[in-house]
Amino acid sequence: MIVVRSTFVAKPGQASKLAGRLKEASAAAEIPNYRILTDLTGEFNRVILAYEADNIGEFQARIQ
Fold first, then answer.
1. What is the pLDDT along the chain (64 residues), one digit of tens a residue?
2. How far apart are CA 14 and CA 45, in angstroms?
3. What is this structure's pTM?
């Protein structure tokens, strides 16, 4: 199993809107076990989409 993390930096004040859109997109794409994270220690406008893939082949198939 691997954990894939995609990091996005939103414009100031827009992180919650970006997190909502990522949540909608992840649900529509049927990504299993996804998490939407916001950064409390670094930049407040950073949003991270994390999900699990069984192997690298599954990850490659999902990004195509």
1. 899 999 999 988 888 899 999 999 999 988 888 999 987 776 678 999 999 988 888 888 877 7
2. 7
3. 0.80
Amino acid at position 50, single letter? A
For 41, the token pair is: 């220690």
Going by C-alpha positions, the residue among 57, 1, 58, 47 that lies closest to residue 21 is 47
For residue 41, the tally of other CB atoms under 10 A from its CB is 6
Architecture of the structural domain at 2-63 = 2-Layer Sandwich (3.30)
Per-residue exposure over 24-38, b if at least 16 CB sit within 10 Å of its own CB, e if not: eebeeeeeeebebee
Rounded alpha-carbon distances, angstroms, from residue 47 to 14, 34, 64: 10, 13, 22
Residue 34 has which token pair? 């996804």
